[in-house]
Design a protein that fits this description.
By secondary structure, the protein is of the alpha+beta class. 47% of the residues lie in helices and 14% in strands. It folds into three domains: 122 residues, Butyryl-Coa Dehydrogenase, subunit A, domain 1 (Orthogonal Bundle); 103 residues, Butyryl-CoA Dehydrogenase, subunit A, domain 2, CATH 2.40.110; 146 residues, Butyryl-CoA Dehydrogenase, subunit A, domain 3. A four-stranded mixed sheet has the order 1-4-5-8. A hairpin with a 2-residue loop joins strand 9 and strand 10. Helix 4 packs across helix 7, helix 7 packs parallel to helix 9 and helix 9 packs antiparallel against helix 10.
Length: 397
């Protein structure tokens, strides 16, 4: 396409910018040529590669500039826009462990973006080394009292005593807590049930009084229960002002829904490609499965629904990239993408029959892990509540 033609495009039309199309192709190629061969050597339910293989992949990803994709460039990351993050998340999810370990960990793990709102000391001590080394970092919000309404359900308490806070309580369903270098912990510093009474703290992973216990779930990668027993946190490790922690948490959650939703689309797209290849060559009752209308419609519906979900994710991303309030759009994208992906993988399993549930293929693993996606990062019902309140004009938080 010539630049003249491009400038003559209809005003207001939209297409993916060329640099993001290149990003898409680069990550797609990297996944096929580098990540897949490494992942093929580990067992079906593995959630990490051998250390040497991972280091090799990460070195190659860094050389391509594909490191800590969501982290701002000035701190050593790729600094992708939300739309860029969506593109990257979709492509990097296309591997067996892609639902929870995109690219098998090749692209590093971003520290939660809220830490970049911290003090120069916090960024220097925690964020930058974390990006350089690819540290494990956790975010602890949910508790046994509830995860969907954290502002009101958080009971863990941090009491200020002089130049430190003393943290007591427990957190539940926390991914990556065991062996983490540090984490963000949201605890109550104000009155019970008060939305404005939550503060955010940077807590070292080896803090005395902090213990972790794995919780077995539907996926092989266990989340953890963390207990805090008189854990001391220096005042300089409080992120943001006292009582203003929930605003930080909300920014992280709302923006995070974009790559979260996009990743599920990537998995469903990969599943659909497996089902299409199977339908073309599998014969039953004197013709291929692809010649049967029942199968054609399952494939066609899957393709149409994925295209619609992808555009909703893009819309949420570009709303955020324009600096606009994206809460509504990210809620819509999260529900539609996660529910669509679950349906698509379910259909693909049906098309493959017994092979669909065999551990020889990634479909059964994706099926299990996608089930969690409708609960994690705010369940479908809570996101629908956000949409309904917008429609009805309610401003209740």
């Amino acid at each position: 396409m010539t630049s003249d033609h491009h400038h003559g495009a209809i005003a207001g039309s939209w297409e993916l910018p060329e640099e993001l199309r290149m990003l898409q192709e680069t990550i797609g190629r990297f996944m096929r040529s580098e990540v897949k061969p490494a992942e093929d050597k580990v067992e079906h339910d593995a959630y990490k590669l051998p250390a040497a293989d991972l280091a090799d992949l990460q070195a190659k990803a860094k050389a391509l500039g594909l490191w800590c994709l969501r982290t701002p460039e000035q701190y050593g990351g790729a600094g992708l826009s939300l739309l860029g993050q969506a593109i990257a998340a979709e492509e990097s999810a296309k591997c067996r462990m892609g639902a929870y370990v995109p690219g098998c960990g090749a692209f590093g793990a971003d520290p939660p973006n809220a830490v970049f709102l911290g003090t120069p000391y916090q960024i220097e001590k925690y964020a930058i080394p974390s990006v350089q080394r690819g540290d494990k970092v956790f975010v602890a919000i949910s508790e046994a009292s509830g995860g969907s309404d954290p502002a009101r359900s958080i009971q863990a308490r941090a009491e200020r005593r002089g130049d430190r806070y003393i943290l007591n309580g427990a957190k539940l369903w926390i991914t990556g807590a065991e062996g983490a270098d540090w984490g963000l912990v949201f605890a109550r510093t104000g009155a019970a049930g008060d939305r404005g009474g939550i503060s955010c703290f940077i807590v070292d992973g080896d803090s005395p009084g902090m213990t972790c216990k794995p919780i077995r779930v539907i996926r092989s990668y266990s989340p953890y229960e963390i207990n805090f027993n008189d854990v001391e946190i220096p005042v300089e490790n409080r992120l943001g002002e006292e009582g203003k922690g929930f605003a930080l948490c909300e920014k992280w959650l709302v923006e995070g829904r974009v790559p979260y939703a996009a990743g599920t689309i990537g998995i469903a797209q990969a599943a659909l490609e497996i089902a299409i290849a199977w339908a073309r060559q599998r014969r039953a009752f004197n013709s291929t499965l692809g010649e049967k209308q029942a199968v054609q419609w399952m494939l066609a519906n899957s393709e149409m629904e994925l295209r619609a979900a992808r555009l909703l994710v893009y819309q949420a991303a570009w709303t955020g990239d324009l600096g606009k309030d994206m809460k509504l759009e990210s809620s819509i994208a999260k529900v539609v993408a996660t529910e669509t992906a679950g349906r698509v993988v379910d259909r693909c399993i049906q098309i493959l029959g017994a092979m669909g549930v065999a551990a020889e293929l990634p479909l059964e693993r994706w099926y299990r892990e996608l089930r969690i996606k409708r609960i994690g990062e705010g369940p479908s019902e809570v996101q629908r509540m956000v949409v309904a309140r917008h429609l009805l004009g309610s401003t209740r938080g």
